[in-house]
Amino acid sequence: MYPVLSNEQLAPDVHRLWIEAPHVIRKRRPGQFAILRISADGERIPLTIADVDHARGALAVIVQGVGKTTRQLNRMAPGTAVLDVAGPLGRPTDIHPGSRTCCIGGGIGAAVVYPIATGVKAQGGYVVTILGARSRDLVILEDDLSRVSDHLVVTTDDGSYGRHGLVTDALKALLDEGAVFDEVVAVGPLPMMRAVCEVTRPIGLRTVVSLNPVMVDGTGMCGGCRVQIGGEQKFVCVDGPEFDGHQVDFDELASRLRAYREQEQEAAARYDEECASADMWAV
Questions:
Q1: pLDDT tens digit string along 20-46?
Q2: Taking the domains of the chain in order of start, what are their residue ranges?
Q3: What span, in angstroms and rounded, lies between the C-alpha atoms of 20 and 273?
Q4: I need a surface site. Which of 66, 100, 101, 176 has the fewest CB within 10 A?
Q5: Per-10-residue mean pLDDT for the chain, 283 residues long?
Q6: By the 8 A CB rule, do 110 and 154 touch?
Q7: CA 98/CA 124 separation, integer angstroms
């Protein structure tokens, strides 16, 4: 069992949980993730290790309550425990010392960008971060990313905070102003990552994206997370989660992400009905 040390709400339906898991964080590196299971009959879900606290032997995960399991996680109170935390999994981010990196986080993608930006800065790199959300109340990790960025731009789709527009608008503006980067790291909704890649492709600017297809075992055995990268089949859990965005087959990936949407929505609706009949906080 892995005790929940704290549960902090960052935005509507978005929480940061610190979970005690000392063996997971010993060799964790930026870009890696863990697979969590709340109970014996629960599903296994992959979540980026957003931060670590070696003094407490704990890791942080940032969870957006979209389906049943993520909503259950967001209701877990300090003192409760997660049954399984397996990790670290996946290939760590390939960080080049001294690199100039533009990190772009859209929505919950900020949770993935933060440890990468932290890692680049720790290697003496120059970090520009573009943090995007639909509206002000959905902006997360602004202070955290500000501490590890040389320059931070916040954008909102509705203009309620920061720069009015999309993250791609901010990226184009930086490039037009003469900003030079060795690479761009973009993490967020699929359409956002795809749009970033279309901005960087014509100028040959290396662009890395972090993918999140359906994943079960985390060892490449189930095949649920397979994607096409440059015409070759890859498994996100062992070959990724980060890939060259210019080589990703986004159409196939989008199709995979839609495969179980109906079942996910039904399970979430049933869970909400159960919660509505009781004052539930802890699972």
A1: 999 999 999 999 999 999 999 988 999
A2: 2-91+266-276, 93-210
A3: 30
A4: 176
A5: 97 97 96 95 93 97 93 96 95 95 97 97 97 97 97 97 97 97 97 97 97 78 84 91 95 73 65 67 48
A6: no
A7: 5
Helix (H) or strand (E) holding 233: strand 232-235
What is the predicted pLDDT for the residue at 283?
47
CATH 2.40.30.10 fits 2-91+266-276, yes or no: yes
Closest CA to 100 of 45, 198, 178: 178
Using a pLDDT cut of 90, give the percent of the chain over it. 79
CA–CA separation, 132 and 51 (whole Å): 20
Q: Which among 148, 90, 105, 88 is positioned nearest to 10, based on CA atoms? A: 105
On whether the CB atoms of residues 185 and 102 are closer than 8 A, the answer is yes
159-191: pLDDT as tens digits: 999 999 999 999 999 999 999 999 999 999 999
pTM of the complete model beyond 0.85 = yes
Contacts of 281 (CB under 8 A, 6+ apart): 75, 77
Q: What is the end-to-end Cα distance of the chain in Å, rounded? A: 14
Q: Which amino acid is at 62?
A: I
Residues 6+ apart with CB under 8 A from 251: none
C-alpha 43/C-alpha 36 separation (Å) is 8
Counting every residue written for the chain, the total comes to 283
The domain 93-210 having CATH identifier 3.40.50.720: the answer here is no
Q: Which residue's entry shows tokens 């409760």?
A: 80
Identify each DSSP E strand in 95-195 by its residue range: 100-106, 126-133, 151-156, 163-164, 183-187
Structure tokens belonging to residue 34? 């863990």
Could you give the angle at which helices 190-200 and 167-176 cross, rounded to 10 degrees?
20
Are 72 and 64 in contact by the 8 Å Cβ rule? The answer is: no
Distance CA 48, CA 51 (A): 9
